[in-house]
Each structure stands twice: as C-alpha cells, then as structure tokens.
Amino acid sequence: VGPTGGGKTVLLNTLKRAQDSLGVPTKMHTLNPKAQSVLELYGVLDPATRDWTDGLLSNIFREMNKPVPEGKDERRYIVYDGDVDALWVENMNSVMDDNKLLTLPNGERIRLNYPTCCMLYEVFDLQYASPATVSRCGMVYVDPKDLGYKPFLDSWLAGRERESPAEAGVLTGLMGKYLTPCVEYVVDGIEDKEKMLIGDPLKQIVPRTDLGLTMQLTRLLDGMLTAE
What we know:
It is built from ten helices and nine strands. It is of the alpha/beta class. α8 packs antiparallel against α9 and α8 (150-163) runs parallel beside α10. The protein starts with 7 loop residues before the first helix and ends with a helix.
C-alpha cells in the first residue's frame, strides 16, 4: 500500500530476482482488475445454453495453481495492480480465509496452492475496501518520502556523465541550485528553508509526488539535450 513513486513495483521485482538467484524459480502475473468488467474478470455463464466462458482472472488462477512437479521448488504470485473495491474483491474473500477457495459463477472451485502460489495487492490506498477484505490481508505501507527523488536523480546524472562528463557537471550544479528549492516549494510549501518561511503547498490539478516531478523534468531534458 502506498502512493505512486514509493517503490512498490521495484520491491516486488527485487523479491522475484532474489528468489531466482537463490534457485527458487519465481513467476509473476500482473493484472489490473479494474481494466475490465467483473464478468470479463471472473467469467460468464450463458443462462440459455449454460456454456461457460473463462474470465481473465479465472484462467490465470487455474494455471497458477496447477500442481508443482515433485521435488521442484517454485513460487508463483498473482499481483493485482489496481484499486481495491467491493465490486471485484469480495469474491476473493473466500480465497484469503482458511478455505483458500475461489468459487466461480459456474460452481467450479479452485483451491489456492499455498505456499507455492500467493496473491499480492499493489494499491494506492484502501479507501473503498471493506473491513472483511482488510482483516484478511497483511499490510506493508511504502512511503514515497522514505525514498525521495534523489536516488533517481543520482542515477540519471550518472547516466548523463557516461555520455558527457562536462555536461553532467553542469547539470549537477543546476539541479542542486534550482530543482531542490522548486520541489520543496511545490510539494511542501517551503519558500525559504534558512528563514523558516513555510506556507501551503501549491494546489495541483493532478497531484504529483516529488519523484514524479523530477522524472518529468529529466524526460524533458533527455529530449532536449541531444547530441545534435
């Protein structure tokens, strides 16, 4: 759980690479449950012909929970990268409790092959999640302020330095002089840190984090500072 730019996706990818390096093959299926309707997600049963059509999640869930070959250690994760609300997540409550069963509209039941297969929710907040869902999940909060924008900026400047050391030196000085005060003013409302002049942060039509603003600036500079 946490705002954009906190490093949630990086943490999951790091977990996958770490397990792969330790000899535990890891598969991750990422989907946005809000990108399609509930029928497209779980499947639909034709009331006239009784024909069953698998949904996106029901198909992935069935494949991910197939038995693992004997003697082989493997990890499989289904990552729900999208908002959690009662429209789709209520059907997952039975999977997250002791039964670990997903019941589809056609009556089929698929058991979660734990601990080989696990479910991860990568969400901005839990504003629309029901207490029944929240009580079944373990929470890890990722705060963007813990990471900030400086590691990304240092990485970008290091990449520019490999192309042109002289240019990178100029950019480093300019970033320290202009970027930090601008970000502090826009995001935190700090007008003068030395004189402790602090006001209200600027109102943004689309809320942005300090990392998002920095990434936007570097993308613009990448497009403008070309060899030509």
